[in-house]
TrEMBL record:
Consists of three domains; the N-terminal catalytic domain, the editing domain and the C-terminal C-Ala domain. The editing domain removes incorrectly charged amino acids, while the C-Ala domain, along with tRNA(Ala), serves as a bridge to cooperatively bring together the editing and aminoacylation centers thus stimulating deacylation of misacylated tRNAs. Its cofactor is Zn(2+). Its EC number is 6.1.1.7. It holds the Pfam family tRNA_SAD. The lineage of its organism: Bacteria, Pseudomonadati, Bacteroidota, Flavobacteriia, Flavobacteriales. The gene is alaS. GO terms for biological process: alanyl-tRNA aminoacylation. One of its GO terms (cellular component) is cytoplasm. This is Alanine--tRNA ligase. Residues 735-774 form a coiled coil. Residues 1-713 form the Alanyl-transfer RNA synthetases family profile domain. It comes from Flavobacterium potami.
Length: 876
């Protein structure tokens, strides 16, 4: 049973019982100080339980988006480790506000599970509340008696307060509950161990699927219970777990709730999700994929409901969830570029009918997630934090070349930048050690680039492979041959050749298709890339089908193909526009057509001006608006194509028979995939223009969905600017005025701070202490770091035996400034750089500089006092 049908049957069932179906409330709560997020189905109805409002109907049913990142079984760091807990989940619920109570709720739950969903009764267990002396709540005899009419008594379990008294939080509506658990184990496992003993013991196949909560009380702030004005029913059934039970799976992630996301993650990353991991490495990949699949749902729905990632409150929770997903992808899936935002498209398609907000806010979700990914990935790639740690833990004034190479090799941190930062901090780089490691790496790289390819295993003798991808995206195929390829870089890869294929192999600047191969028994083999080799289309996969001689359905990822085709057609129009506006000297020197964007390299003698870029954009978009149909000619003589005005690209290899692509006056020889009509491109937008090499320029551009998202993002930014400027009629003029005003204020501030530093000089001079022939002072001053520097030099000019450490906490950022008179640097063996590196530890930072002047920044303002107290030890 498909998940959409599971959801529909639930709502239809309770509608037949007189319930009004209502939409899900937002996952983000704005007006409830006790909760950041909707963590249960009943949260939106709390006012009705408390008697503070009247519902539209006494009986309601819905499916509610929920988010939990703490509490019982829901710690964020545990999600993805098991197969049945989530951050965001769907809760199917039916509600009675002062209408029916235990009898109806229990009987209907049983009817739906056993008669509609047809879950075998022998697989179900139920629990009732045993009572609590602490809260003076008795054993739930009524629920027990009702269940006795439906199920054998030996399948009824007594539950304690932890398991069978449901509370939304420390305060609020609550009451005893009766849970329904399902045992999904095999018959052999059931025969060995009773499911009853596994209920509420965190067994992955013996799980709670439905909780019937009988709301009778309100938990007050002091912990006491008071009776609610009326008795209510609040039920919640975990949608993902229910789908697991009904689809015969042993993991929530194996259901069609998550598999579309998992398949897309596999397609994007090339990783393989093993239903049953056979080793630790596979399990780490599994966990990472589960984390990403789970977390993108939570983050996207939160953003769609208005909660952007930030550094505080609910926004921090969302950022933390997303960064956990990025970290898992980066570490275990090898994703060094943003990719999670791409999953929003799949999520929108999958859940947009039930939750239309994810569809209408798709662009916003994608843009926000992409920016967050890029921001965090930059932090990971740059390795600045690691470099700071290396400096902080280093003894002496030289950084080991091996450590510097690790930053360079593992994190891509440029060695010249490392050397520059070390120099600024008064440290040296062991360049010889770095070069030694670099040479070893080159030797390893040569070894790693070696590819070992096995022989082709021929299954069917078929010399002619038909490409059908221009006309369709799926095809019944047979594998004609395959081989195993091993490399240190990619590990084991299988290359497959089909008798016919809809997959476009990478060539002509267009990336290869991805997709999957489906066997007749439903098994899936994912095609992670497609190449062309020796006039054959070769499909790359991480594994082989069990039955290599079977017939398979080869399916191209249609979404990615459409985006790639849009970008390829736009590349032709761009080429035409450049030749028309800049001159016929323009020649294509390279291109890269992907699903996300296009890149076009061309010969030109100067930077393309902003005005020229606008002209090019306008030209391409005019061709798009003309709705020019694709006129394609296949297998025509090359000479005829050239006579017809087709452009042949320099450096491309053409056969005697060629294919021409024509959109209006644009005619090119091309073997790539294209849109049927230029209107399918929707819009063309240049995002960058720059030099690649002498005389070669590069334009990068986007089309279709990416262009839509770009303009939506720009519109949001403009509206935010206008709002920040109090809805100014001319925001540009207002911004220029603010910039002028800001520049003037900065000059005034600099003057005032310098005056303040001069005025403080006399006061601080009175506080100097003579210690061992040194004028010593360690003090926090109310200045910015630049002001502290000016003050240090002002005092330094007046003394030749000065040692001072000044601390500032400007805008909450601690900074230590050390000045040592040059006359005593050598005579007293004092070094300002060493001083700030040592004292910087107390403010959780570090720094450096010259022997007579150095600074250190940090994170911990509270450590300033201790740092200043330790400064005196340098002169004792």
């Amino acid at each position: 049973m498909k998940s959409q049908d599971v959801r529909k049957q639930f709502l239809d069932f309770f509608e037949s019982k007189g319930h009004t179906i209502v939409p899900s409330a937002p996952i983000v709560l704005k007006d409830d100080p006790t909760l950041m997020f909707n963590n249960s189905g009943m949260a939106q109805f709390k006012e009705f339980f408390l008697g503070n409002g009247t519902p539209k109907s006494p009986r309601i049913a819905d499916t509610q988006k929920c988010l939990r990142v703490s509490g019982k079984h829901n710690d964020l760091e545990e999600v993805g480790i098991d197969t049945y807990h989530h951050t965001m989940f769907e809760m199917l619920g039916n509600w009675s506000f002062g209408d029916y109570f235990k009898k109806e709720a229990i009987n209907w739950a049983w009817e739906l599970l056993t008669e509609v969903y047809k879950i075998p009764k022998e697989n179900l267990y139920v629990s009732v509340f045993e009572g609590s002396k602490e809260d003076n709540v008795p054993f739930d005899q009524e629920a027990w008696d009702i269940w006795k009419t439906l199920i054998d008594e030996d399948r009824i379990i007594l539950g304690n307060k932890k398991d069978n008294f449901w509370e939304m939080g420390d305060q609020g509506p609550c009451g005893p509950c009766s849970e329904i658990h399902v045992d999904l184990r095999s018959a052999e496992e059931k025969a060995l161990v009773s499911g009853k003993s596994l209920v509420n013991n965190d067994h992955p196949q013996v799980v709670e699927i439905w909780n019937n909560v009988f709301m009778e009380f309100n938990r007050k702030a002091d912990g006491s219970l008071e009776k609610l004005p009326a008795q209510h029913v609040d039920t919640g059934m975990g949608f993902e777990r229910l789908c697991m039970a009904l689809q015969g799976k042993t993991s929530n992630y194996d259901t069609d709730v998550f598999m579309p996301l998992i398949r897309e993650i596999e397609t994007i990353t090339g990783a393989k999700y093993a239903v049953k991991a056979s080793n630790e490495a596979e399990e780490k990949v599994n966990i990472a994929i589960r984390v990403v699949a789970d977390h993108v749902r939570a983050v996207a729905f939160a953003i769609a409901d208005g909660q952007l990632p930030s550094n505080t409150g609910a926004g921090y929770v969302i950022r933390r969830i997303l960064r956990r997903a990025i970290r898992y992808g980066f570490t275990f899936l090898g994703t060094k570029e943003a990719f999670i935002y791409k999953l929003v498209e799949t999520l929108s398609e999958q859940m947009g009918d039930s939750f239309p907000e994810i569809r209408t806010q798709k662009a916003l979700c994608s843009n926000v997630i992409r920016e967050e990914e890029n921001s965090f990935l930059r932090t990971l790639d740059q390795g600045l934090v690691l470099l700071d740690a290396v400096i902080l833990n280093n003894n002496g004034d030289t950084i080991d070349g091996k450590k510097a190479f690790e930053l360079y090799d593992t994190y891509g941190f440029p060695i010249d930048l490392t050397a520059l930062i070390l120099s600024e901090k008064g440290l040296k780089l062991d360049e010889a050690g770095f070069q030694e490691q670099l040479q070893l790496q080159k030797e390893r790289s040569r070894a790693a680039s070696k590819v070992t390819a096995g022989d082709w295993n021929v299954i069917i003798e078929d010399d002619i492979q038909e490409f059908v991808g221009y006309d369709r995206l799926s095809q019944q195929v047979k594998i004609t041959k395959y081989r195993r390829v091993e490399s240190a870089k990619d590990g084991e890869i299988f290359q497959l050749v089909f008798n016919a294929t809809p997959f476009y192999g990478e060539s002509g600047g267009q990336t290869g298709d991805k997709g999957y191969l489906e066997a007749q028994n439903g098994d899936i083999i994912y095609i992670i890339d497609t190449k062309k080799e020796n006039n054959q289309t070769i499909h790359l996969a991480k594994s082989l089908p069990e039955n290599l001689t079977g017939t398979f359905n080869a399916v191209v990822d249609a979404i990615q193909r459409a985006k790639t085709s849009s970008n390829h057609s736009a590349t032709h129009l761009l080429h035409q526009g450049l030749r028309k506006i800049l001159g016929t000297h323009i020649e294509q020197k390279g291109s890269m057509v992907r699903n996300a964007s296009l890149r076009f390299d061309f010969s030109h003698f100067a930077k393309v001006s902003d005005e020229e870029l606008v002209e090019v954009e306008n030209f391409v978009n005019a061709r798009i608006r003309e709705s020019l149909p694709l006129i394609e000619k296949r297998a025509i003589p090359k000479e005829q194509a050239l006579e017809d005005g087709a452009i042949a690209l320099f450096g491309e290899k053409y056969g005697d028979l060629v294919r021409t692509i024509k959109f209006g006056d644009s005619v090119e020889l091309c073997g790539g995939t294209h849109v049927a009509n230029t209107s399918d491109i929707w819009h063309f937008k240049i995002v960058s223009e720059g030099a690649v090499a002498a005389g070669i320029r590069r334009i990068e551009a986007i089309t279709s969905e990416a262009a839509k998202e770009y303009f939506e993002s720009q519109a949001v930014s403009l509206n935010e600017i206008k709002e920040a400027l109090k809805n100014a009629q001319d925001p540009v003029k207002s911004i220029l005025a603010l910039q002028d005003e800001n520049a003037q204020l900065k000059k005034q501030l600099e003057t005032l701070l310098k005056d303040k530093a001069k005025n403080m000089k006399a006061d601080l001079a009175k506080e100097l202490q003579e210690i061992n022939g040194v004028q010593f002072l360690a003090k926090q001053v109310d200045l910015n770091p630049e002001g502290a520097k000016d003050l240090a030099y002002e005092l330094g000019n007046a003394y030749n035996d000065l040692f001072i450490v000044l601390a500032t906490a400007h805008e909450g950022k601690p900074m230590l400034t050390c000045y040592v008179s040059k006359e005593i640097v050598a005579s007293k063996n004092l070094n300002a750089g060493q001083v700030v590196r040592e004292l910087g530890k107390y403010i959780q930072g570090g720094g450096g500089g010259q022997p007579f002047f150095a600074t250190a920044g940090g994170k911990n303002v509270d450590g300033i006092a201790e740092a200043l107290s330790k400064a005196i030890e340098f002169v004792k």
